Amino acid sequence: MTVPTQKGYGPILAERRIGVLISGRGSNLQSIIDAIACGRLAATIAVVVSSRADAAGLQRARDAGIEALCLSPRDYPDREAYDRAIAEALQTRRVSLVCLAGFMRLVGPPLLEAFPHRILNIHPSLLPAFPGLEAQRQALDYGVQVTGATVHLVTAQLDGGPIVLQAAVPVSPRDTVETLSARVLVEEHRLYPEAIRIVLEGLWSIEGRRLVRAIPS
């Protein structure tokens, strides 16, 4: 259920029910769980869905009392059928916002159409720089002095949707992929719950490629 807002901005979500999609350890999932538990984020995680049965994030969810499912793409004839199954699982549980947290699958039309402008992803670079895999290695290969983390709305373009929040992380000449990734991850954990809060509040609009937040009067 949504409640329309004024001045043409996005809808406030009356039911703040999040679905989290994972494929691995779920550290960003844990940051969302912790933010809800301490009151920084007013929301409920309705379900966690993993593409892998061995994902450690499934146990994180169960430890927190959250329903956790594995939907393996191997059990479906194609990507569209798989995405439809995920969309159905989320809609059945009245999910209003979908958060990708290390979900190693491209999101296709069935999910995008079921949750228009309601799918978030977190990426370990300052987009539009270094989209796709191994963003930290790309940053080191290019010799940039600053990289970071980005939370964005998901569109059909890989890592190309409107940006909600970003955080910068300096790159040291002594950095390795592992050390840089660890520092970026700290910012991811801080950034994601705040970006979720912004989107759930609904005081934003899409103008071209940009997400524009309402300016308090």
Please characterize this protein's 3D structure.
By secondary structure, the chain is an alpha/beta fold. It has a single domain, classed as Formyl transferase, N-terminal domain (Rossmann fold). It has six helices and eleven strands. It has helices spanning 27-37, 56-63, 79-92, 109-114, 135-142, 177-201, and strands spanning 2-3, 12-13, 17-22, 44-50, 68-70, 97-100, 119-123, 146-153, 163-170, 204-207, 210-213. It has a seven-stranded mixed sheet. The chain has a two-stranded antiparallel ribbon with strand order 1-2. Helix 1 packs across helix 6 (177-201). It is globular and about 50 Å long. Residues 1-8 have low confidence and may be disordered.
